[in-house]
Amino acid sequence: MPPSLPFLLGTAELPLAELHAARLDGELVGVGDRFSPTDIARTVDLRGARELRALALVPRLPAGLVVERRTAAWLHGAWAAPPAPLELCLRSDHRVRVGPNVAWTVRQAVLRPDELLLVRGVLSTTPLRTALDLLRLQPDGRFDRRHRSAVVTLLLMQPRGRERAEAVLHRSPHLPHKQRALDRLGALEL
């Protein structure tokens, strides 16, 4: 029986030039900064695609941090490519020592257990929390078509996404940028 390829390939398996050549030949597809054989990438469903993206993130993530905002949107399939730098957060009830790195930005956040999702060892904000963070935290001049599209996609991943997002915002009295998020949410076409 011939050996099978792993789900994801990186420079540990093949030189970068060969990986890109195989991608150009249609034998591999890019998954973040890794590559997957096309037959695997084509046959996975939404959940499987999320797991492939999580596996691509694992080697790049410091332990104990949570994937959030655009990075979480990419993990959930609502953003085209992982942002550079990765957007991560540290749960306010955890203590993790992470040195500065140009590969990621880190902020501290209060996260409830129901706002977290574990995918193949990667801790991420849920689609609803990710949509709310994009609505609240992206500055006005930088909340563009891609952000609106990602928020709509994330909200459509669950039943009554808009109503659930509005409910979370209304029951959080001291949430920073709450009104900005409500205004943006009201302007979305779902």
Features:
2 domains; two-stranded antiparallel ribbon; 8 helices; globular; alpha+beta; 190 residues; three-stranded mixed β-sheet; 7 strands; AbiEi antitoxin C-terminal domain-containing protein
Tally of strands:
7
Summarize the main sheet.
3 strands, mixed
Distance between the termini: 50 Å
Using only C-alpha atoms, the radius of gyration works out to: 18 Å
Low-pLDDT residue intervals, each spanning 5 or more residues: none
- Which class best fits the helix and strand makeup? alpha+beta
What is the molecular shape? globular
> What topology, given as strand order, has the largest sheet?
3-4-5
Helical run tally: 8
Give the strand content. 15-25%
State mean pLDDT (0 to 100 scale). 88
Q: From N to C, what is the helix and strand string? A: HEEHHEHEEEEHHHH
Protein name: AbiEi antitoxin C-terminal domain-containing protein
Describe the structure.
The strands form 3 sheets. The chain has a 3-stranded mixed β-sheet. The chain has 190 residues and is α+β, with helices and mostly antiparallel strands. A hairpin with a 2-residue loop joins strand 1 (28-31) and strand 2 (34-37). It has 8 helices and 7 strands, in the order H-E-E-H-H-E-H-E-E-E-E-H-H-H-H. The chain has helices at 16-24, 38-43, 46-57, 69-75, 127-137, 145-156, 161-170, 178-187; strands at 28-31, 34-37, 66-67, 86-91, 104-109, 116-119, 122-125. It has 2 domains: 1-43, no CATH class; 62-187, no CATH class. It is globular.
